[in-house]
Amino acid sequence: MFAVPGALAANSCLNCHEKLSAFNETEQQFNEIRIKHLTRDIACSLECHAATLSKFAISNFEQWTRSKHALFNVTCDNCHGGNPGSDVKETAHVGVLRDSDPNSTVFYRNVPGTCGKCHVEELKQFMGSAHYQKLQALRQAPACDTCHVPHEFKILNVSEFHNLCSNCHNIDMRVAPSDAPDRAIAALQDADNLKSEIRKADDAIKYAKQQGKDTSAAQKSLDNAISIRDSLPVLWHSFDLSNFNNVTDSGIKHAQQAQLDTGMPIATPKGPGFGIIVSLAGIIAIFLLRRR
Prior knowledge:
This protein has 16 helices and no strands. The chain is mainly α. The longest helix has 31 residues. The N terminus is likely disordered.
């Protein structure tokens, strides 16, 4: 099927859930085909059926193997409960409830508390958000696994994130503010700008050191910018975009100050570069040849 790290091979969850999870009749048929292949000693892998299987739910375990949870050996029981030390179904699943059960650790309103057992600071930020208040009021609202897709827990790209927020924050749904998706994307772009300014400051400091200049003040400003950059992933979970922007802007100012503190001029292009000039010359030459 797929490679499993040696430290994880002994996980009793894998011993029981070594087959693809059958969430519907069609996927059950694929699983039966796979079993027949194995009994006939025919190699079978997800890669062979990826195009078809991608239309349906793929094994939760297979998704988990691609996550950082797998890398740090955070196994099924950490989120779902149960007794991983038992190979008896009844005792292994003690405390494991369906995600539709309000008492389940992965019921949507309970997910923040489950994730917060490890992600303490993120939970603190999230508890101050309007999203969390709606969850507490027994209303529908995003939880951790809304943005961090289980079981990969990957971070959504900009397009996915914008589309997700737009499901609620739009004019038709009347969930204020309706421009939240655009503001959130702008905030993420500011965070990227901060990272860019930090790289520029780091390069400026390295160059200044080579010139024998004192960079202590510049390094202090850069350290402040880096500290702010590192705090952003946790701060994001408050969904306070105004505060997030203020903090990000502060980090950008620190990074730019670091560049100024080096005493090195920040080069800005005053005209087209040599590569652009050559490309334009080539285009003109082709145009003239075609006319002939």
